[in-house]
Design goal:
The strands form 2 sheets. Strands 1, 2, 4, 6, 8, 9, 11, 12, 14, 15, 17 and 18 form a 12-stranded parallel beta sheet that branches. It contains 1 helix and 20 strands.
């Protein structure tokens, strides 16, 4: 098995078939990664005080951080991280306690905070800050810090979202599979 794969309180990360985890990535605890997904250099995904779920054909690019918020009296469910299918998470993105739909492209350096919900078929511009609790509606481009809805996505942009994910499925296959399903 490649990458630094660690249990936390007896919970091991779990992987679907044909998943690529770069040797420098760190995956800890209650993390599930769906088939044909990829986790690239220097990613940290820490499912310690809550869980992380990453869908199929999703790519988490270099230097991303994925973390969660714990369960508390104020927040009985905490904030896990859920990432849908065919999502492209650009370099140096920070995802903390948020829900990302399917066919989403998150631009480099974006920060998505606790309680954010990103619906399906969304593009988030590089460097955007999505503050806690915000909902990004399906079919739109969002940019800025704090993020603002800019415009509806074109059909060409909507068609590109699964294509972006497919490009990373092909790339991870070039690198070779290195994680067995658990």
């Amino acid at each position: 098995m490649s990458g630094d794969i660690r249990s936390y309180r007896g919970i091991e990360p779990r992987f679907g078939e044909h998943v690529y985890i770069d040797p420098s990535a760190v995956i800890v605890g209650d993390v599930e990664i769906g088939e044909h997904s990829s986790v690239w250099p220097l990613v940290a995904a820490r499912g310690d005080v809550n869980h992380i779920r990453i869908g199929k054909r999703t790519n988490i690019q270099d230097n991303c951080t994925i973390h969660v918020s714990r369960v508390s009296d104020r927040n009985p469910e905490g904030h896990p991280v859920h990432i849908g299918d065919e999502v492209t998470v650009g370099h140096q993105v920070m995802l903390h306690g948020c829900k990302i739909g399917s066919r989403v492209l998150i631009g480099m350096g974006a920060v998505i905070m606790d309680g954010v919900v990103v619906e399906d078929d969304v593009i988030i511009g590089a460097g955007s800050l999505i503050p806690p609790g915000k909902v990004l509606r399906s079919g739109y481009l969002y940019v800025g810090s704090p993020v603002k809805e800019l415009r509806r996505l074109s059909q060409q942009e909507l068609d590109f979202l699964p294509e972006s994910a497919a490009n990373y499925v092909e790339l991870k296959d070039d690198y070779g599979l290195n994680v067995s399903p658990v």
